[in-house]
Design brief:
By secondary structure, this protein is α+β, with helices and mostly antiparallel strands. It is about 50% helix and about 15% strand. It is built from 30 helices and 23 strands.
Length: about 950
């Protein structure tokens, strides 16, 4: 028997039914098309933005065939890998002598015959801007040459062609406040150039560089420095050569080997794209194998795709169920005319196939359109240009087939239910009664418990595959429990007002419609919460490991040489150009004997000052030295964190020396230093400072309320003034000094260990000099303010430098969390809206009955709102709980790795926190459900339309 005629009729019925129920069909098509759209756009964006080898070579070489460069080894034989990254001398070859290294390398002699080339050199420089002064990098390169196309592109103006012209990237022009035609001066040699054009690097849109023609910056700068010894010479890079071989020839592997014989390293496009076999690469035997992470990446991608497919099925399934229920009379007629149950199921499945195919086509087409439309925005966000839009036909076809399969799978359960109904029930419109499965919740609870156990076990043992598998199993277990949870919600409405009571009971009575929507919301929220929790936890770990250069919200002005006569003008420059709040705190530096910052050339030609750290418990760090590894094996991560944060271990692993303090980290200052920089507001400490008692920030250096200060008073013969005051042999003094000890939390203050009053230092026979100031900032300075303050400091004599705190890296995680919250919020709103619309269509008869018995018009609005609220809130709460499983398990994996590193090196941090993203959870658990309810209520008509009650 040929099955095709039956399926042909089923598809014809399904097509006509889809056209007749346009609203429901559009809803299903939208649910299938939206994920297909997202996956299509993501595939096109990923493939187009993927840094392939060809794109990387274009970003490095432009249209050139190769880049030739010399090494610091001289003209000796080299070996290299085909990509040009790894190179070295042949195995067993003697190291080149200093004489060989000083010999010049004839790079141009290594070019293929008939080649054309460009030279490239870069130099760091400070240049003038509209706001002041900015540090940047100037590259001498003929950017107008067609050989650079693909690497550097003109966006406005013209390329520089004369020696007094220069081009800049758009990023630099924007931050500097410049325009085409402005003059740019290189500080030092005071060479001025006209800004002729704006360029961009397609591979790095955020680059802030300047480009000049060869010979226009470095050589004149060097000549000026040779004439004026006060001008620092340019610190230019070694030259590189971009080479274009004769047409059709390219730079072959044989050309590369010939260049290696002359001591030249080559990056060849032809060789990198088509590398020779290892047997022809002399250096291949010396290189080890590399790790291939494609397997893990593929497993992760398949897991995400499977969960996305499940979510679409959960969303679209209720729509097909309602459609099948509304078409039950039509399906009953099919059965009454002799149609089998299989043919009834075929009609419903054909509906899924039709709508799935339409959704797939619409989704793929919309994905292409939106990718092209938003391409400039995506490129700006990614920081690089796509080049050409990369389309993988088989991947796009696979995405379309996924949409088709999704439609069929979503219609599978309704088709089975429709096939089981009797013809009499279908023709009379009776739903019949069917008890909920008692097996499914039991299986769900078991799957949930096993999934959590597997995920935790994988986390403890460092297996990400077990974590992923256990998390998926746990989420499927929660899915199995959702019908029971929804049924339980109906019992909670007994004491509630009419509308929420009806909403809860309707959700419980129609679990086949409510449970999938709740599951879809849960799946979306679980993924977002898992990523958000892991991201927040990882951000907290990075913030803990980050060692700040200064106290956040402060700036420090320090004298750059011994002459501090210009400090008043420099302080005024900072106060006038930076967002300073409150007064400044002046500091000084202290030393013994001759000043080592001046007399540093001779060995033992200057004095020393040391703050002696006592030994013993509370003073010596137990994580360093003898017994440290044995201790690390016994302690937990929390105990290790407590020890690492103790004053005894604070400076053992890393200590920042700044503010002219040397290793002792003692600054000269008063109570204003404690208030503005240390953030230690203590009247008792301020009183101690006024009485001449130093304030110690690290209690590990104090014993019995006193510190030991050891000074070696060595005076250099060239230090005429101090040598006359202190004749005779060098002497060493050890003083016990009473101090005020700050609480332990101030031991981590960057750059300062003790604040000493000036009169105390002078009493001890130490030398003191005014050195700088601290300023409190009420916000982070802008680019314009940073450039203007640098210009003001230059006008003030350029004898001071500015330091500011930097914590910009933390803002990126906030953006990720916001994107995740928005994604989950949109899915939640969509799923809740879909369920509300389906429940409204499915319960029209019940609403008509309510109107007939005198229910006010607002009941329809409030009922829709509460139905939407129930689905959204239930799904969000379950998703939050489900999302914590993979996040916690992955953090356990990180903890295992951190503990292993800590036990190998006890001074390594093992802090692996689990931080809840409360802002994201609050947005999803409170704002989104309430917003969904309000939108559903606002978009529902309250008009009464009385009709005859069916049956």
């Amino acid at each position: 028997m040929n099955p095709l005629p039956g399926w042909r009729a089923a598809f014809r019925i399904a097509r006509r039914d889809a056209v007749r129920a346009k609203g429901r069909s559009a809803l299903v098509v939208a649910m299938i098309a939206l994920p297909v759209l997202g996956v299509t756009a993501a595939d096109l964006t990923y493939r187009s933005a993927l840094p392939t080898k060809a794109k990387e070579l274009t970003a490095e070489l432009g249209a050139a065939d190769a880049r030739f460069s010399a090494t610091s080894l001289g003209p000796v034989k080299l070996q290299q890998m085909p990509d040009g990254v790894a190179w070295g001398t042949p195995e067993g070859a003697p190291d080149p002598t200093p004489e060989e290294q000083e010999k010049p390398v004839e790079v141009t002699a290594a070019f293929p015959e008939g080649s054309r080339y460009l030279t490239e050199r870069t130099v760091p420089a400070s240049v003038t801007t509209r706001h002041g002064i900015a540090d940047t990098q100037i590259t001498e390169l003929s950017v107008a040459d067609p050989m650079l196309r693909g690497r550097i592109e003109l966006t406005d103006g013209a390329y520089p062609r004369a020696k007094d012209e220069i081009a800049a990237t758009e990023e630099f022009i924007e931050s500097a406040g410049l325009s085409i035609g402005d003059r740019v001066t290189v500080r030092g040699p005071d060479q001025s150039y006209t800004l002729t054009g704006a360029v961009e690097l397609p591979a790095d849109l955020r680059a802030d560089f300047l480009y000049a023609v060869p010979g226009s910056v470095i050589a004149p700068w060097q000549k000026t420095a040779d004439r004026d010894k006060d001008i620092l010479p340019p610190q230019a890079s070694d030259p590189k050569w971009l080479v274009q071989a004769p047409p059709g020839a390219g730079v072959t592997w044989q050309d590369v080997l010939a260049a290696n014989e002359k001591g030249v390293v080559v990056t060849s496009r032809q060789v990198a794209l088509n590398p020779p076999p290892d047997s022809e690469v002399p250096m291949a035997a010396m290189m080890g194998s590399t790790y291939d992470g494609d397997a893990e990446l593929t497993a992760a991608a398949l897991t995400v795709a499977a969960m996305a497919l499940l979510e679409i099925v959960l969303l679209a399934g209720p729509a097909f169920a309602v459609g099948a229920r509304r078409s039950r009379r039509q399906l009953g007629l099919v059965g009454s005319c002799g149609g089998s149950r299989g043919q009834v199921r075929a009609v419903v499945l054909a509906g899924g196939a039709v709508l799935g195919a339409v959704g797939a086509v619409v989704g793929v087409g919309a994905g292409f359109g939106l990718t092209v439309l938003f391409r400039p925005m995506i490129e700006d966000y990614a920081g690089s240009r796509f080049g050409e839009l990369t389309v993988r036909p088989w991947e796009i076809l696979g995405i379309a087939v996924l949409g088709l399969v999704t439609g069929v799978l979503a219609a599978l359960a309704p088709a089975i239910v429709a096939g089981r109904q009797s013809v009499l029930e279908s023709l009379t419109g009776r739903r019949g009664t069917r008890r909920a499965s008692r097996v499914l919740p039991v299986v769900g609870v078991i799957a949930l418990g096993v999934g959590i156990a597997v995920a935790v076990y994988g986390g403890v043992n460092g297996s990400t595959n077990l974590v992923a598998g256990g998390s998926v199993l746990a989420e499927l277990g929660v899915l199995g429990c959702i019908p029971v949870i929804v049924g339980f919600l109906g019992r909670l409405g007994r004491r509630l007002p009419l509308t929420p009571r009806i909403a809860l009971r309707d959700a419980a009575r129609n679990r086949g419609r409510t449970a999938p929507a709740v599951a879809a919301v849960m799946a979306a929220v679980a993924g977002s919460i898992a990523i958000a929790t892991y991201t927040s936890s990882n951000a907290a770990e990075q913030a803990y490991d980050f060692t700040p250069n200064m106290t956040p919200g402060t700036a420090a002005l320090m004298a750059s040489d011994v002459d501090n006569s210009e400090l008043p003008r420099s302080r005024a420059a900072v106060e006038q150009n930076l967002p300073v709040s409150g007064g400044r705190a002046d500091i000084g530096r202290v030393w013994a004997g001759s000043d080592c910052s001046v007399y540093y050339e001779e060995e033992n030609g200057c004095g020393t000052l040391e703050l002696v750290k006592p030994t013993g418990k509370g003073h010596s760090c137990p994580l360093k030295g003898k017994g440290a590894k044995e201790l690390a094996l016994r302690i937990s991560a929390d105990e290790h964190k407590r020890l690492m944060n103790s004053p005894a271990c604070m400076d053992e692993n890393y200590t920042m020396v700044a503010f002219g303090t040397d290793e002792h980290k003692i600054v000269i200052g008063g109570a204003d230093v404690l208030d503005s920089y240390v953030k230690f507001d203590d009247p008792a400490a301020a009183k101690a400072m006024a009485e001449g008692t130093p304030v110690l920030l690290n209690s590990a250096y104090a014993k019995g309320g006193e510190v030991t200060l050891k000074a070696t008073h060595i005076y250099n013969a060239r230090d005429k003034k101090n040598r006359a005051l202190h004749p005779g042999k060098a002497r060493t003094t050890t003083d016990r000094l009473k101090v005020y000890v700050a609480p332990d939390r101030y031991a981590a203050t960057p750059g300062i260990r003790m604040v000493m009053p000036e009169k105390t230092a002078e009493r001890l026979g130490l030398h003191v000099e005014e050195y700088g100031s601290f300023f409190t900032l009420h916000r982070e300075p802008t680019d314009a303010e940073n450039q203007s303050v640098q210009a003001a400091l230059d006008q003030a004599g350029n004898r001071a430098y500015l330091m500011t705190s930097d914590e910009r890296f933390r803002t990126e995680d906030d953006t990720i969390l916001l994107i995740l919250a928005l994604f989950a919020g949109v899915v939640t709103l969509g799923a809740a809206a879909i369920t509300t619309g389906l429940s409204k269509a499915d319960a029209e008869a019940d609403l008509t009955t309510l109107s007939a018995v005198g229910a006010p018009p607002g009941v329809r609005r409030s009922l829709s709102g509460f139905q939407c609220l129930v689905v959204a809130l239930t799904g969000v709460l379950l998703g939050t709980a489900a999302g914590l499983v993979p996040a916690v398990a992955l953090r356990l994996t990180d903890l295992r790795a951190a503990l292993a590193d800590m036990r190998e090196d006890p001074m390594q941090s093992a802090y692996t926190p689990i931080v809840m993203p409360w802002e994201t959870i609050g947005l999803l658990a409170l704002v989104v459900p309430v917003l969904a309810g309000l939108l559903a209520a606002g978009l529902t008509s309250s008009r009464l339309t009385l009709t005859r009650r069916a049956g």
